[in-house]
Amino acid sequence: MPEDTSKDSTINPKQVLDTIKQGVLAFDHNWNCRYANEEGAKYLGFSKKQILGKDILKLVPTFSETQLYAKSIESLTTNKFLKFQCRNTRGVIWYNFHINPSPTLVVIYINNVTEETEKFLKLEESEKHHRTLIESVKDYAIFLLDHKGKITTWNKGAENLLGHSAENIIGKQVSLFYAKEDRVRSKNPTFFTNQLGLLQTDGKIEHDRWWIRKDGSRFWANEITTAFVNDKGKIDGFTKVVRDMTERKNTDEMLKRYTQDLERTSRAVEAEVAKDEALLDSIGEAVVAVDGEGRIVVFNQQAQSLLGYTAPDVLGDYYFNVWNSVNEDQEMIALEKRPLSVTLKTGKKVINTSCYFSSTYRRAFPVMLTSAPVVLEGQIIGAVMVFRDIRKEKEVDRAKSEFVSLASHQLRTPLTAIKLYVEILLGSNFGVISTEQQEVLTSINESNEKMIRLVENLLNVSRLETGTLSIKTEQTVLKDFVADTVRESNAVAELNNCTVVLTMPSSSDIRITTDLVLLRQVLTNLINNAITYSKGRKSTVYVNVKVHPGKYFEISVEDSGIGIPKDALQNIFQRFYRADNAVKARTEGNGLGLYMCKMVTEALGGKIACVSKLEVGTTFTICFPLSKVRPASKSRRK
Ligand code: ADP
Prior knowledge:
Layout: H1 13-19, E1 23-28, E2 33-36, H2 38-44, H3 48-51, H4 56-59, H5 67-78, E3 82-87, E4 94-101, E5 105-112, H6 114-136, E6 140-146, H7 156-162, H8 166-169, H9 180-187, H10 189-202, E7 204-212, E8 218-229, E9 235-244, H11 246-282, E10 286-291, E11 296-299, H12 301-307, H13 311-314, H14 319-322, E12 324-326, H15 339-346, E13 350-359, E14 362-376, E15 379-389, H16 391-426, H17 435-466, E16 474-477, H18 478-495, E17 498-503, E18 511-514, H19 516-532, E19 539-548, E20 552-559, H20 580-585, H21 593-603, E21 607-613, E22 617-625
Parallel strand pairs: 17-19
Antiparallel strand pairs: 1-2, 1-5, 3-4, 4-5, 6-9, 7-8, 8-9, 10-11, 10-15, 12-13, 13-14, 14-15, 16-18, 19-20, 20-22, 21-22
Helix pairs in contact: 16-17, 17-21, 18-19, 19-21
The site of adenosine-5'-diphosphate (ADP) has 21 residues, from helix 19 and helix 21.
């Protein structure tokens, strides 16, 4: 309790000391407490009353072990004022002690400085962390400069990046690292003022420029400079953070080069595309390209004029929405059978001459088309179709067939007359003829027969092509029909030193209904070919008949002649086609016979096939369904 001083006009200093926050203790040299204010007593764990006049060493025996005791002794013995700081025994409160020695007393002032000390310690700790952090950064050079640009700190990263150790760089000018051109620039006062101005307004400047290492090598650096501005707005110093951007710069430059290359390539591609487009537009054929889904990607000028659309109208559209496709009988062709669809699905090239195209703007016109796949890394990614209007060709073809038909008709009558008259002469109706005369007449007859067959073939072909071949069905017994036809060929066989052997099962004793004249022509052609393409020496041709009751019958003609080369097999039914070995073996021939055989067989509802091996022999087989025989009618136009 403070003493009552209200009646006293003078203030007792002890009373003042009692009111202050600072602890005050005074001991005589025997450690008796001669004065203590409340704060001072509290420090020792007592009240002021409890401690006054007491020997502290007796009151608190452990006092002699405290740092305060040790320091007080030191102060007394050295007779010097001492100041120190320590924490209390529980380590939670920081105290500041001032010890004043005098000849009779030792006065101790105690201040509780926990708050400031903790703050200071925390700050110190965080600075330590920062320093460690900056020190440990290896990829960035981080350092400080004073206001004149002299280096004051140097981290590990700076050492790594620039090659200088802290000892030999601290105190040097930062411009040491700049490339010559930048050094000159930075000396320019205007430049410097500008930089400072920027630092003051923005707080930092960022630069990308060359920096020089200790060994003289350069690297492309990104440099961020920040200024420390003091209370008066003046710059005290700078921090610099520098990193090596050479790799990045190289990558950027590489990217730039790639971009330029790409631009150049894309310009070249554009030019190429323009060239291709011009080329595509200039050709006489229509060209349409579709992607893997059938969407139009190219539609050239000719395609536009044939189908009546402009390219922008149809690009991106499915091709089957743009034009229709019908066959020769004007029947719609199913989508999956349309050439582009077939090519996209199978990857096969399709050539077609029997298609008609039409669109909203164009009436149906016949086309000759080729559709081919576009293949990328084994994948069908689209198809290209080239086509042209063949109306004119069709007309010319038709006119030609009509001419052939007319000419053949005109030829047939005199040839039949020659045949008749030669047979009369050979039959000795006008007197006996000599052996020489007979030989000559036989040769005339043979040549005439060939001419008749040729004319018949020509007639059939032109009728088939103009669609005027009429099929007249009759009934006959299969067995008799084949036997008759073979018998007629015997004369030719004999002349060629050949025997024709006919094999017929009893099942061939059935009635068939077909156009006998046409079927006879087919069979005769096959037998004559077998005879003539057998090698000069004695040969045998086998004609075999097979019947599959209720289903079909087949007649095969087999020889052991020159055979057909493998690559020619696919062409032998084409008009005017003759294989090389046949041309060598027999110069005369026209390549019409097999073409006619195929067309007629199919017109009669049958099929023809050929199996052959070069130098071994050939077998042609025709087969016809037994139930399905075409009625007498006009064949389809081809
Ligand atoms: P041509 O016999 O007048 O040449 P074809 O149309 O009858 O005409 O035959 C076409 C081609 O088929 C022949 O040129 C020949 O190359 C081949 N050929 C037909 N039959 C036979 C056969 N039996 N043996 C070998 N080649 C044949």
